[in-house]
Amino acid sequence: MKIEATRHTGTYPDLYLKDRRTVVITLRTAKRDCHFCKIHIFPRTDPEKIRGIEMKCILRDRVFDYFQTEIRFSKVARYQKYYFELSDGAASWYLNSWGIYETEPSDGYFEFLYANRTGIVQVPEWSRGQVFYQIFPERFCNGDPGNDPADCVKWGSVPTRENYMGGDLRGMIKKLDYIGELGAECIYLNPVFEADFNHKYATTDYFKVDPMFGTNEELRELIAKAHGRGIRVVLDGVFNHTGIHFKPFEDVLEHQERSEYREWFYITEYPVRISHHCYECVGAYKYMPKLNTANPEVRRFILSVMEYWVREYQIDGWRLDVADEVDEGVWTEARMLLKEKYPHILLLGETWGAGLRLMNGAQMDCMMNYIFRDAVRDFIGYEKIDAAELDHRLQSMLADYPEEMNQAMFLPLDSHDTERFSFFCGGNKRKVLLGAALQMCFVGSPSLYYGDEIGLTGDNDPDCRKCMVWESEGQDRELLEWYKKLIALRKKESCIKTGKFTANLCEGRIYGFIRHDGRGEIYVVLNAGEESRKVEVPVFYKKSYVNVIDQQSYAASECLEKGYLNSDIRDYGGILKVNMEPFSVKIFRMQ
Fold it and tell me: Domains, the chain, ranges and CATH?
């Protein structure tokens, strides 16, 4: 065996709690290196009660296999010692906390101590597998011209970082039926608090809706009416930095070293002027000074804001801007405060890479998964990676986090900070349809950025922040119906919302995977290439299947070979022989 590839740390995420009686344990080995894996576990005080539990390979990337098991105890889990037995078919090896050996250990065991409540990976049930709809407020819908800024330009004008077009809360309220008919289950709003600039990430008042969007009461109305339609609302929390007109920062500008708020910011030189040389900022944006989130006063302020909008306006969660740049203790305190009183609240962190620092069970429930977006962009949009590389990225990404967090993971194809997915696709509509299918059938909570569903396109900021098109003649109605169909399928099939994931096909530009749970399976096959391909799709059973896209039926033939992708860790009982047109998708379920 490649013993150097074998890993189990005995800590999160290799060991975590689903509840106080259920422990989930994961072991990593080299790919296809381990043919058999078993955990031996026993109470610290009674070694005679040892039990052996076989572990199954649940994920496989290009380099590693990931074995996992759930261990259920009759009482609260505590004081359990354990080690692993592994076999490559020729020899057996044993892994304990000291290393890997050819003889069974008599000491040096891993040990799990106690199932504390704070160690449970708790993600709101409603957030798992649901569909987000992201709204950039200033560009979604102008429902009240009376609150338009004086320099407002015509709706649909070329967007810049400075101009305003009049989008507001009243417009969102008027379009709730549209959002509901699309099938979205949660609205994520970019910032709505009083702030400078059209993006509102330079906050001046954290307790007040920006007047150009409406009033606090209109936000309350939006939330109540969304809830009445079964739609939840998540607000954008900008707590890493403020705007220069935030009163504590204005106090620093006025009173300099004598300001009682001087420790709220990272002042680098006096006198303080509006310059990034005088204080630390987010990026190099001098109009957005960075908060000193290690300061206890700042922390108390942030927590007061977060609780206020949950308590008084019944929001369903926070999307936390540049969460990975804020002192970790802030999110730990926020989670403890909010989850104790409002366990349904979702904490969604912005990060652009791996989020293990935030996704440690004590801070975020999930993150904005740009790793997923990058992989889909590179496979479908840019065509610069093949299916094997796509599979590697997706599987290694899933292996980083507990299943519960993966199910809630925010899955964008684009956002207010990126080019539109259709822009990546160079206007190739078939690619856009394909990307939507992959997104809507993958593990997590897919997010539609307003306008994706009707063909809105654009380069990066500010071009990705165009006005929503409401005239039907300006909308791609075929694309809209495609999204509605995919979302309806997702909501109907529990295996897509919260089921497990298995890749079953990786051949050049062809990628296939299975979503499965105890109630059924869905088989997704994508051709991201320019040529038609005849492919054989492994399925679990020799039964009849229907392509839910066009209702065409297929009969599976018997699976006589073992050479199909992951056939050593999954039992395939049948094969579907299908023809895949260029840039097409088929989604099968058993009849």
Answer: 3-119 (2.60.40.10), 131-233+317-494 (3.20.20.80), 496-590 (2.60.40.1180)
